[in-house]
Amino acid sequence: MLDEVADWLRRRSWTAADRPLAQLLAAKERTGETVSVVLPALDEEATVGAVVAGIRRSLVETVPLVDELLVLDSGSTDRTAEVAAAAGAKVIHRDEILPELPAVAGKGEVLWRSLFVTSGSIVAFVDADLREFDPVFVSGIVGPLLTDPDVAFVKAMYDRPLDTPGGSIPAGGGRVTELVARPLLNLHWPRLAGFVQPLGGEYAARRSLLERLPFATGYGVELGLLVDALATAGLDALAQVDVGERHHRHQDAAGLGRMSAAILRTAAHRLPLDPLHPEPTLTQFERTDAGFTPSTTRVPALERPPAVSLPEYQVCPRSS
Ligand SMILES: O=c1ccn([C@@H]2O[C@H](COP(=O)(O)OP(=O)(O)O)[C@@H](O)[C@H]2O)c(=O)[nH]1
Ligand SMILES: O=C(O)[C@@H](COP(=O)(O)O)O[C@H]1O[C@H](CO)[C@@H](O)[C@H](O)[C@H]1O
């Protein structure tokens, strides 16, 4: 892990408890910041209501942390819109936004379009397929943006069990994160190796940053925004907050394959042109009593030349 990342982990990695709600409300009052929460939703009738109700009850009605709560309908064919509206969200269909620019399918498409129909100086994105949702997912990621003017982009970090019909497998979730995104970032953007959940769907940022970034229209949006936020705002403007444990609906291997392809394409579009690091490493994280503890291992990079290029190579007669 780069020294810069180890230092970043000490300065820009927090827990939600580090900023009590009262502190956030006072900061919001003082700074005049406004908060929009956006839920991208494609056929989420089973879960969107509880997520919306949780945010509305805790962060709109009980305390005025959230000023705008929007469900962006990504072309649902179920009752997502009705359920979300009944729970108290504003609901806008992607086709209602920029009709002269026909919408394409994808999560990133609706996150990008949400910027045209929201007004908060801070925008927080929250998946609509979350289960056991806790409003701290929102207050945790919004907190640093209210109290630290130097921070512009905040990712949630959490334990990610894999919930199966047979039970919950601790740390089994985040499969594309562990198999695709984390290796990609460590190899090509090692300054982002400190992010525990680089693909997490819960993150918040200043509008003044988001409006200057391109949005990959598909599942590459999280990786693209993280890489571009680093390039645009610098590592010190990025942060992460531990908000506990995340449960969500899991896709099958085929779905994760399509997601991985989108992420790899988004990364390929941004690959830095500088030479590959001669001794790359991979930093992974484990939840311990001290929080998310990093462990770094070397990535084998040595390649042997073709055998024929060595004089020692004699074409040995094939043994019968
Ligand atoms: O084309 C899409 C794909 C996904 N989503 C939403 O984006 C969030 C994350 O998508 P998903 O749950 O499929 O990703 P996963 O969490 O499985 O990686 C969910 O609220 C989806 O409803 C969306 O709005 N449009
Ligand atoms: O992190 C991951 O590996 C994937 C899949 O998670 P699971 O293996 O189903 O827990 O989930 C995330 O990735 C998507 C692409 O960035 C995001 O859009 C989702 O919000 C996030 O859940």
From TrEMBL:
Cofactor: Mg(2+); Mn(2+)
Catalytic activity: (2R)-3-phosphoglycerate + UDP-alpha-D-glucose = (2R)-2-O-(alpha-D-glucopyranosyl)-3-phospho-glycerate + UDP + H(+); an NDP-alpha-D-glucose + (2R)-3-phosphoglycerate = (2R)-2-O-(alpha-D-glucopyranosyl)-3-phospho-glycerate + a ribonucleoside 5'-diphosphate + H(+)
Pfam families per UniProt: Glycos_transf_2
The protein's enzyme class: transferase
InterPro entries registered for this protein in UniProt: Glyco_trans_2-like (IPR001173), Glycosyltransferase_2 (IPR050256), Nucleotide-diphossugar_trans (IPR029044)
Keyword match Manganese: no
Molecular function as annotated in GO: glycosyltransferase activity
Domain Glycosyltransferase 2-like: 36-155
Documented EC number(s): 2.4.1.266
Keywords linked to the UniProt accession: Glycosyltransferase, Magnesium, Transferase
Family per record: Belongs to the glycosyltransferase 2 family.
Record protein name field: Glucosyl-3-phosphoglycerate synthase
